[in-house]
Each structure stands twice: as structure tokens, then as C-alpha cells.
Amino acid sequence: MKLLPKTGFVLVAAMFALAAHAQETGTLKKIKDSGTITLGARESSGALAYTLGDGKYVGFHTEMSEKIAADLQKQLKMPKLDVKFQPVTSQNRIPLVQNGTVDLECGSTTNNAARQKDVAFAMTTYVEEGRIVVKAASPIKGIADLNGKTVATTTGTTSVQTLRKNKRAANMDFKEVYGKDHADSFLLLESGRADAFVMDGQILAGLVSKSKNPADYKILPEVLSVEPISCMMRKDDPAFKKAVDDSIKAMVKSGELAKMYDKWFVAAIPPSNTKVGLPLSDATKNAWNNPNDKPMEEYALP
After folding, report:
1. 105 and 240: one domain?
2. How many domains does the chain have?
3. Could you say which of 36, 117, 267, 282 would form a disulfide bridge with 82 (CB–CB 3.0 to 4.6 Å)?
4. Rounded distance, CA 236 to CA 221, Å?
């Protein structure tokens, strides 16, 4: 057997030390050592993720994140895992993941190229379409009618930027107003302070379904964007990303993820027991069957 030169031993030892250090600082070790996983929770992100109050968080992605946590507990052979929810907003979700406050955020976060510089994303679990909601009596029928109007969206989201990039919005002039969360943005429309609200279609559908009178609103058919929605985690932690992706893939294979989807998007949901009424789309089904973490820039615009 050929012996390594002394420098070779030093190099190998250094490589093992680096690998050990990476493992020591990884999210899986953090979870095992602390006995806790902290999940980022959205309070008003449609059927994907929302709160019932009193610290109770529900929704398709919220339930999915709880199942991921249960799978991580099994993988790490932990007799007990304390699952904590940390409410996050569109503004603070990325910083809270980066600084270690949140281990995994499964809400309504779009995977795009800019965000991939700061965080990592799990495989896509929902493909969203950007849409516009207006009052039912509004003369606005599409993007072309927004010129000179007041358009609401939520602070920290990309919806208005996406709207402005749409070729149908070229040379348009409209005023932007911002809500602190999606419910606040919807209130801007409801109270007449905005003529339209631009956001993810499922979020708009959920807000309309839970409004005082859903018939007072209409979601316009025009699609502004196609956006992959994914769970978000810290960068450069391939072991944790693989564990999360493997959990989701298992849910797809067993049919559990499809059942979760129907529970939150097709059946009546709390607190008002109304239906969002969005059957599983071909785009989302395709993302499940062909796991990937491609950013929205690689999706074809409508």
C-alpha cells in the first residue's frame, strides 16, 4: 500500500475537520442538540398558511411543514421534538431564516433568482399565478385598465414589481399602496383606498372566500405571472435540504400531499367553513412529479 506523504495526511485531516465543522453547524445538528425545530408561520397567506388565533397556525404548507418536522424527528432518532411556530411577515421572513431564528419557512414564498442568493429553497410544492382582485362593480377588466388607478399589494412581496415588468403594463402610471400583511392589503381594497389588489391567486381566493360578502369581489382572469412557491431554509446546508426534499417526495409518493391539498383548497376550511375552490393545477402536479427548485425566472411567463 502506498503511504501518503506528510502533507497528504495534513490535507486529509483538514478535509475531515472541515466536514465535521460543517456537520456541527448544520441545521439537523442544531435541531437534535436543542430538541426543537422552529417553523416560520404566515398569518394571512390564504389556504397555504394562516392563523386561527391564539397561536394556532394551519393551512396546506403549515400542515406539510409539521409532517416534515415529524419525518426529521424519525431520521434523527429523537424520542421527542418540540415544534415551535414563529410568525413571519413578507418583510422579515428572509432575515429570520438567515439569522437562525427560523429553521424552515413554509408559507407563500416565491422562489426567485434574487432570493436564491440569500437563502435555499426546497422542491416546489405549489405553482402560483399572480392575479388581480377588484370590487365586483369595478370597470377594471385587466391590466390595461389599471392606468391612473391605485393598486394595493403587501410590503415585502414582489407582486407590483412583477406587474410593472409585464409587457401589458408598459408605460402605465398607477399609484402603489402597501398593506403590512395580506389581510391589511385586502382591507385597502375593501375600504375603497385601493382600486385593485395584486397578489398570488390562491391568497386572493382565500381572502375573498372569508370576506363579509364574497359576491362583492371578482378575481380577474388575466394571469400576471407564474411563480414556484417553496419552503425556505438557510443556504449551504445540503443535508438539511435533502432531508426536507425527501420528506416531501415521500408525501407525494404516498398520496398524502394530494390529500392535504384537497383538505385545504377543495374542502371547506376553518374558521368560516367556506371553500377556496381551487382544484390541483397541472402546473403544481407537474412540479410534484418532477421535483426541482427552479426559480420563477425559468418559468414561462403568460
Report:
1. yes
2. 2
3. 36
4. 39
